[in-house]
Fold these 2 entries.
Entry 1:
Amino acid sequence: MKHRDHLSLAFWLALLVALLVLVSGPVRAQTLIEEPEDKFQVVLLGDQEQQAARPGPLKIVGTGENDALSAHLEDVAFQARGRLRSATRVDWQGTAFIVWVENERDYRQFTGMSPEFTAAAASAERRTVWINAAAWKKSDPQTQLHVMTHELGHLLVGNLPGGRDLPLWAEEGLVMHLAGEWGLEQSLAVSRAHALGQLPALEQLESRFPTDPEMQSLAYGVGYLAVREIAGSLGDGPGAPARLMRRLADETAGPRMSGNLWDPTIRDGWDLRMRESLGGRFTHLMILISSGATLWVLIMALAFWAWAKKRARRRAADQKEEEEEAWAASLTEDDVREVWGAKEDEQEAKAEEDEYPWERWERLKEEEE
Ligand SMILES: [Zn+2]
């Protein structure tokens, strides 16, 4: 090795050290989470066991002095845990960590830029959920609860004997069931993609999801539907995969099941069942084509109904006016004075409206005296 090479080696080493020093800030923040002494363990509850007690095995990290924020996160996590328990009778023992990350750069570093969510990420192995503060603050309470339940769901699934090595579509789909994440919007998007032949195959979703937001959303949808079939085959209803969780928790049956889902033949079988559950593509296409026309008929019907109602109301008002006029013609002088007296009150009320606040204040003061 020449002298010059030694120099350049020294330069690169110095650069490497400088880089390490630069990135060590967030790394230090990350290691602030002390190694917990207890063991994190997923527990299967009997039917009789009650809801979780409030001081749950949760630790909020990174909120500093902001006690209100800690309490808020703890509250959302408590609700999420309650949802997981009631949907599946599954809970955990030991401490789970929820790390509040203010800085986007730290967030990327902690989570390894997981493409999954900008709002939060989870590591089952480290029993930690990282919350991206910026995205969290922008979300409504319902979304926050979904995000928290989803991420805590990852902690549970990832700590089951059969949950550690699931294909990505199966893990995400299962976690969506745990978090109760399915709505009309997603259902329509999946139906539409199915009609147009644009639904991704499970085969493409084993290790990664597309980064394009629309395609990513479809990937989650496909995962959800495939898991609905798998859980359904065990007798679970949608959104409550209690039996599937128990199967994955079994030391022998769990790993066998997740291994099977990697088998191309079995995987494609579930893919087919998932598509069949959506019905024929032709039917969906017809619904898609006709839905435009249906919508117009509905709008026209609503418009006609509103017009008819307005007309009926105007007629009733006209009739009432006629009656009132007839009544006015038969009034005595006293009646008229009574009526006009009421009108004077109205004028006074109008005058009060026109005055400035300080004028009103002065007038009221005078009236008091
Ligand atoms: Zn997820």
Entry 2:
Amino acid sequence: MIKRGLLIILILLISGCSYGSEKTTQGAGNTITIANFVFEPSELTITKGTAVTWKHNDNTAHTIVSQGLFESKVMNKGDEFSFTFDKVGEYDYHCSIHPSMKGKVIVQ
Ligand SMILES: [Cu+2]
């Protein structure tokens, strides 16, 4: 009786864990918000093949430029920009209007 109970608890724990991690990889964690002249988070680590979405939530127009990789249009509040990172590496990007605005995406 006790053994069977333990087994059921173990199965519940294992299935609960795998369900949890699945949610994490598919859910949040690949969105960067632009607000108050800051990319948040300024450094984001993702796995290869993940699409990152920048959400503009500032009263000032901004762009997202990674030299030789991508360049967004001039974005205003409510705009979004997405890019899928297919290669492992570290990618610096910045706002071409405000060069002090910088961020980094680390692809593993
Ligand atoms: Cu800017």
